[in-house]
Each structure stands twice: as structure tokens, then as C-alpha cells.
Amino acid sequence: MQSDRWEHGSDFHWGPIAPVGPVPSPPWRANPTYWATGRHALLALMQHSPSARRWTRLWIPSYFCQSVVAALTTTEIQICLYPDSPIEAFPGTDDLPVRAGDAVLVVNYFGLRSRPSFVPRVSGVEIVEDHTHDPWSAWASESDADWCVASLRKVLPLPDGAVLWSPRGHGLPNVRPVAIEVQQASLQKMSGMQLKALYLAGMPIRKKVFRDLLLESEAPHKEAPVSAMTPWSRELLECMPCVGWCEQRAANHAALRRSLAGVPWLHCLAPGERLQGCPFSGVLLFDSPQRRDYVRRGLIESRIYPAILWDLEKTPPRVLGNIRPQDLDLSRRVISLHCDHRYSFPDMVRVADSIRRLGTAFGSDTADAL
Q1: Are strands 57-61 and 102-107 parallel, antiparallel or unpaired?
Q2: Which run of H or of E encompasses 335?
Q3: Which among 238, 193, 185 has a CA at the least distance from the CA of 26?
Q4: Closest Cα to residue 32, out of 229, 236, 278?
Q5: In this structure, how many other beta carbons lie within 10 angstroms of the beta carbon of residue 212?
Q6: Alpha-carbon distance 265 to 282, whole Å?
Q7: Residue 60 φ/ψ region, left for φ over 0, alpha for ψ in the -120 to 50 degree band, beta for the rest
């Protein structure tokens, strides 16, 4: 058996749940509904709204995952963009030309934001908040939005799962049956997670086998009808010590930032001073797309797998054509490094050292990253 199988990032693997802290009372304790993915939760809400809420337009941030945008455009509700991105302190919603029948989606990018104070409160306009990147933040707990959604599978080792709730007590969409496509994808994802755990433990598992399972499990979620969360993921959710895991993620994020402090060609996005929450990942902004791409390739060769959140130009191309140039520029220069409970302080230092080495090897440009 091979013992050195260290790697960083990519999909969760499945491992024992250590008792690192209490299972928290979540912000959605008042009659939530559970869905296969965050996309399914949003679509369920949009399909629910024409009869129950009478939405005609949904405003979404200009910097947003394009595959989710593509899914949202399949409903009868018009999708409109407003200016917002992770490098802006607050959502640009204060002067939106909203009208009765509109809804506004506000995103807590990467768990770095505190609750905004000037989201529009216009009669007949509803607010939807996306808390995927920090579902246990003070903002999520104290929200007075009409609706809140979080894709739990993005922050927890779950093969599927998202939650939808209404802080204002609105009626929620009826939960759909678990689609057969979602069941199959979830079991496939769980198999890949288990095989990855065995691989990391040094067992004679071929990496391609679990990678194929994990990759292939994503497509069915996009093609399946809107579906509930699987019962096994619901059971797993109740076992997860989310508070302890959040504390570990915050500590890892701080360690990564400290280890990269002073790098002239790099900016690590930091939480606001008043933040009562936990950053989702180490979001790094490079001074140029070329250096970003060079470092990313080198990290992958070193078994460090960053994400790009989000590529606004990938295939299929962006759905709405009026994305701001600054959003496109940001998407070309950003990477996201995992900071979750799988990793320790030495892991984060190892990742930071690799970034420094690769970025310096690219060149000695000292231009500011922002």
C-alpha cells in the first residue's frame, strides 16, 4: 500500500465524523424544506412564486455561477442582473429600479460579508438570500429576508442536499419526491467519496475510479426534475458537528492568509471587521490571468486542486451577455483554496508555500493585485 497520498482540495471524501463540537441549532429551524441541490431549491421557489407570490422578475448579482444562471432562465420569470461581486463591500441593490412583482437575490460571497443594511424594502418586492458559503453565520440566523437558501453539499461532506426556509414565515413550496436521477447520482457520489477515503488512506484504489464517479455524479443533478434531498443525506446532516467544523475552517482560512501576507502579486480576500461568521475558502486574486493560470497548473501538479468561483466564460458560455468587464476580469484572476475541516495548519502552510514558490517562479512583477 502507498502511504503518501496527501492531496488538497477537490471533492469531499467520506470519513468518520469526529465529535469536535455540538450539533448546532441551525438558522432554518422553523419548518424548512430540503432539496437535492441549491439550484433545485431556487427553482422550486421560482416555480412556486407565479401562483403564490406573483414574481415577474428576479434580480441576481452580475458575478454568479453561470450554470445556475442557465437553470434559472428556464422558468417564465425574467432574470435581470445588478452590479455585485466578491470584491465589493455590499450588494449594489440600493438604487435598483425594482417594482412590485420583483425578487432580489443577495449573496453572501464566500462567507465574507456581514448582513447588509440597505437591501431594498419596496412593497411587493421580495428578498432571497443565498447563504451557501456560510449557512451558520449570524446574518443567516438573524435574517429577515423573505426566503433563504443554502446548498449544504458545498460546505459539508454530503452527497446531495440543500435547504430552503422563510424567516418571514411565508408558505414554502411543496417538497417533491426524490427523483430517481438524484438517488442514483447521490449513491454514485457517496461511492466516490468512500473510495477516495480509501485511496487517501493508502489502499490500492486507482484514482481514476473515484474521480470518474465524483465527476459523473454532477450531471444528473442538472438534468433531473426538481427533487427533494435524499433520506440518507438528511440522516447524515443531523450527525454533523457543524460548529466545530466552522471553527476549523475559520482557523485554516486565517492560517492561509497569514502565510501569504506580503506577497506583492496576490490579494487574499478577507472578511469584514464586523463579520460574525466563517469564511468559506481562501479566495485569492492574482495580478494577472497569466500568473493565475501558471500557479493553478503548478498546484494541480503538486496535488493541490483549487477551484475557480466562478468562470464566467467557460463552456457553455455565459447566459446573459451584459456582465460587467470588471466581473470578467475578476473571474480570470481568481482561485479558491479549500480551508475546510479536512485540513490542518501544516496543510495550509504547505499550500501557501507552493503558491509563493510558483508565483515567484512566474516572474517578479510587483504590481498590486487590485
Answers
A1: parallel
A2: strand 334-338
A3: 238
A4: 229
A5: 14
A6: 16
A7: beta
CA distance 21 to 2: 32
Q: Residue 232, Cβ neighbours under 10 Å: how many? A: 16
- Residue 127 CB-half CA count within 13 A: 23
Rg (CA), the chain: 20
Chain centroid to CA 49: 24
**Hey, what's the torsion of the CAs at 291, 292, 294, 298, to 10 degrees?**
130
pLDDT of res. 14:
87
Q: How far apart are CA 294 and CA 306, in angstroms?
A: 12
**CA 310 distance to own-chain centroid:** 10
- The pLDDT-based confidence of 20 (bands split at 50, 70, 90) is low
Distances from the Cα of 213 to the Cα of 157, 190, 209, 221, 301, angstroms: 15, 9, 6, 14, 21
Beta strand 147-150 with 126-130: parallel, antiparallel or unpaired? parallel
Selection from 309, 280, 312, 301 nearest residue 354 by Cα: 301
Q: What is the pLDDT of residues 62-111, one digit of tens each?
A: 999 999 999 999 998 999 999 999 998 778 777 889 998 999 999 999 99
pLDDT in tens, 165-214: 999 999 899 999 999 999 999 999 999 999 999 999 999 999 999 999 99
Beta strand 334-338 pairing with 281-286? antiparallel
Q: Where do runs of H (alpha helix) occur along 260-343?
A: 289-301, 325-333
Strands (E), 3-100: 8-9, 33-35, 57-61, 78-82
Kindly report, residue by residue over 25-70, the tens digit of the pLDDT.
Answer: 788 877 899 999 999 999 999 988 655 567 899 999 999 999 999 9
Size (the chain), residues: 370
**Residue 180's CB: how many other CB atoms inside 10 A?**
12
330 band by pLDDT with thresholds 50, 70 and 90 = very high
Which letter does DSSP use for residue 196 in this model? H
Closest by Cα among 254, 265, 244 to 339: 254
